[in-house]
């Protein structure tokens, strides 16, 4: 992630502005407000704005006239209760707005979450930056064999080098050809004066899917936590997980009580099916249930034993 | 609207808290933050929190690194352009949270707007306040004759008095019986020690639809403006319009440029159908179109002539 | 639930119409299509239309050119996999439309589910039916003591009779006064020729919250299952649970494979928090965890032991 | 668009299945059900399923017990009234499901419409087809000068040939390299036995944005019409407009009355701002308003005069 001097100056100037407010304010989050937090090789997450704090969740749950807080202890108890019993509406009363730079193929996974507001940098209106994602060698992995969706062993150094050379060459060539098609540099000057530039909305189709895009993305806390529970999960693709990890840290700064409840009741929790619960009950009763008599598939059995820390 | 001393104290205390923030801040809105703005006889609208300002719309539309503002003049031009061309996503980048007290029959219209977050005071968990809506005599009107949905002439003083007596008596009796069913006062003391209180979730069914409820309601600006365009409209029922009018004033404080564009392109605008446009073109060409040859229904013709200020 | 002769005739006529279609069709659901399924004393659930079947979920998950089905066995495996791993989008590819008659206080809980389409019978436009909900004595219960939200022991016959008398009298009187305010019978004839009728949109505020309303309600399968998981839950109020139970039966007719997976992975499942899982692991390792050293609240401990069928 | 023999056989087989249903059925739409309707060079739109007909809109608006239809004449009047007065909920009672093949850069515009259900072909799980979009020469146009977003004059034959050569070469090379990275053919056989294949979720990032993807996309009628009003508009990019045009034809088959109302009140209509209306009123009064005294920008003035068919 390299910001231009101009971008850096804009951020610095914006961070220097301060105002007095009556709104719920969180100093821990204010301290990183507007700053780009690096993700992948050229991406970032910036917290642009936020609404509410842990107390605001309590305030909404109680439909209060004043601030939500009674005592931090009480607030934590209520927040844990709300999270445990899936009372989602008080968590919708907090909102956060991010500025995110991310590869297009990650953006395509991300946008599947529909309960957010988004403004993407327009490739019809503007020229996209020359930035594309190249994985670190340690993240280049072979197709998983047991799972049609996912990665397995990391490639050898030689194989990784071969892959990166292909990715780099194709991205470079496609971007160079994008510029040729546009026939225009970033300042709007025509490169070849004797021919027209192709419309931006058409030229962009020549770019590869690892090209970076950027957007403003705004979401309420309940839906953010749902996003994080899916995208910080080991089943998610590494690249989007890298963003989720950074965003989870911003939530920990912003709403420490909620973040802890989320960790306990979502991230570290497990949903046990009716059949899985029956197995657990039999185990606790001293029985020896087997995969065959459990009604679970082989895969479910393995997953359950892993969750239970049991050797099955 | 009469707040209890305790509620008033909570609000006063909350308003006295101030913090420094790097977020976009709007002094004109801060000045009324948390204060109840009266609506109808016992209702109110309170702005609890907000995110963004006019510049934040510009900032999102440009996917900026810094504040959106270049010059106020430019910002206004862009906001008007976005509004005119239905580019709605930048307007979703502002958010506002209200605390609202309103009659249940108004709440039932309001909740039809689904793109908002809401936490309502729970009649399962708590006892509802003894407050019910009684219209001012000037708002008691007969059923419209030309329109199956709507009001017509205001009732005479005698008829209004008769109506109000019925509404008051039934609301009073139903609330008194609600208390009898609960068998519990507001402090949780049993009234009749010899019998149990009916569960709150059941007792509430005895209340009338003009009983007041309250909720926290949070929405993005785009959807708020959509709500206002429908609910500040003369076709909306007076009671919900009264809320929309007060909320529109909060938008004018918060986002003066957007509020003006909204007034020009939505509230004061008219959608002319293809057939209506054909009539206008014929009028401008000096022709004399008639309802019969226009393809418009009699009602559409009247509405068009009213919009055009034409005697048709 | 008593339909008028006219309503019954309309339903009978509609059920006699048949057409040939290339769409996915489910005879088990067709057999009850359009028929009112009774709920509570005057309510009903009618399935009006539906889109898709179990195979359509598979078809969408595979983005198939043909029908989804390979073998029923495979389909069931994939549907269970999708449900287990929270791949919700294929379940959104089925849709169902209901016509529902329900008390207003139930409608107010129901409408909190925002991801549905709804057309409610309009009290501005039409006169509401004289039908109100009176619980059966067996469902009249005292306020729960351990839980601020919920019911406890059923009332004695004498107490129940007292409660029902109050509910009936108030509903009767309020409805009679509603008619007086309207000054109009169901055929539009004025009752008292010497005074005007109050506008319907105003008169309705005099009705009690147990008055029945009705609506068309349409939702995709994923969101319907979410609705059912919350509303068929013992924490939900009995009255809305009664609707959820009937709707769950319609899902079992419509999508037997999905309904079974839903039963296993949602209705009969339990979400164990990180702390709860730690307790289970200790139990399986032969340790004796206690509430005090578990990090669980007393209530969470009780709930966990109940789920595990363990005496704690 | 070239389907494989297997795909064509699946479609043919699916179309041959027929069932009896009590649901609302539209023979005009059934006749094209499941058939691919070509769009662009390799894309298509297939109607997979639908719910409702014109009468279903009326039925929901009236919350009817029987079919909506009284007389076609009445239904048309009501549908026009609902469309004119923005009563959107009855239109949400119809639903349609499409299978669509489209270039990724079009999919990225499309997915901004959030009120739909979507299942996309997964590049993590499967290998994408070797199909990429190459515009016809007549659609290759220069960047618009007066409008930062859009196209202007069509390129000369020579310029177009140059552009197409670049687009084709880059897409071909990137796809060939994608196969090299995967090291696997479509039947899952390894190409080079001595090295591993890169995970599919990574290899796909090498593809260009004109590569075709496909998805199942399901939406209610109200939101579909909103989509079409924006995407069948001349301001939309040609490529997505091509899809909107074909989908509009499917709506005309499905719901002829609604389609006609939509054409009159949306597609052929114009929203006149308060200032624009003032200009029209002055013109009708015989005055000579000028851009300068109108309060309109130069661009708004031109657009208004175009709408009015006036020489300004």
From TrEMBL, chains A, B, C, D:
Keywords: FAD, Flavoprotein, Methyltransferase, NADP, Nucleotide biosynthesis, Transferase
Cofactor annotation: FAD
Record: residues binding FAD: 89, 112-114, 120, 220-222, 226
Gene: thyX
Cofactor note as given: Binds 4 FAD per tetramer. Each FAD binding site is formed by three monomers.
E.C. number(s) listed in UniProt: 2.1.1.148
Reaction(s) the record says it catalyses: dUMP + (6R)-5,10-methylene-5,6,7,8-tetrahydrofolate + NADPH + H(+) = dTMP + (6S)-5,6,7,8-tetrahydrofolate + NADP(+)
Functional description taken from the UniProt entry: Catalyzes the reductive methylation of 2'-deoxyuridine-5'-monophosphate (dUMP) to 2'-deoxythymidine-5'-monophosphate (dTMP) while utilizing 5,10-methylenetetrahydrofolate (mTHF) as the methyl donor, and NADPH and FADH(2) as the reductant.
Biological process (GO), any one: dTTP biosynthetic process
Enzyme class: transferase
Alphabetical list of Gene3D superfamilies matching this protein: 3.30.1360.170
Pathway recorded for this protein: Pyrimidine metabolism; dTTP biosynthesis
Family: Belongs to the thymidylate synthase ThyX family.
Subunit structure: Homotetramer.
PROSITE patterns for this protein: THYX (PS51331)
Record-given protein name: Flavin-dependent thymidylate synthase
GO MF: flavin adenine dinucleotide binding; NADPH binding; thymidylate synthase (FAD) activity; thymidylate synthase activity
């Amino acid at each position: 992630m390299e910001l231009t001097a101009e971008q850096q100056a804009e951020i610095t100037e914006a961070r220097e502005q301060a105002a007095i407010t009556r709104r719920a304010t969180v100093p821990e989050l204010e301290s990183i407000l507007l700053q780009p937090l690096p993700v992948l090789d050229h991406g970032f997450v910036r917290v642009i704005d936020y609404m509410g704090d842990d107390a605001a969740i309590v305030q909404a749950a109680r439909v209060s006239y004043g601030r939500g807080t009674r005592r931090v202890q009480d607030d934590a108890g209520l927040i844990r209760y709300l999270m445990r019993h899936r009372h989602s509406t008080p968590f919708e009363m907090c909102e956060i707005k991010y500025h995110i730079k991310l590869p297009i193929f990650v953006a395509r996974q991300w946008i599947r979450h529909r309960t957010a507001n988004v403004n993407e940098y327009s490739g019809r209106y503007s020229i996209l930056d020359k930035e594309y994602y190249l994985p670190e060698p340690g993240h280049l992995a072979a197709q998983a064999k047991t799972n049609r969706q996912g990665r397995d062993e990391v490639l050898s150094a030689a194989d990784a080098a071969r892959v990166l050379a292909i990715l780099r060459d194709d991205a470079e060539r496609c971007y160079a050809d994008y510029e040729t098609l546009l026939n225009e540099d970033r300042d709007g000057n025509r490169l070849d004066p004797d021919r027209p530039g192709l419309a931006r909305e058409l030229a962009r189709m020549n770019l590869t899917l690892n090209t970076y895009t950027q957007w403003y993305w705004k979401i309420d806390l309940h839906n953010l936590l749902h996003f994080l529970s899916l995208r910080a999960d080991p089943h998610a693709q590494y690249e989007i997980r890298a963003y989720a990890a950074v965003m989870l840290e911003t939530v920990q700064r912003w709403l420490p009580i909620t973040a802890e409840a989320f960790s306990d009741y979502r991230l570290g929790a497990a949903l046990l099916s009716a059949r899985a619960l029956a197995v657990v009950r039999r185990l606790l009763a001293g029985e020896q249930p087997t995969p065959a008599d459990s009604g679970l598939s082989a895969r479910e059995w393995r997953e359950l034993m892993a969750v239970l820390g049991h050797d099955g």
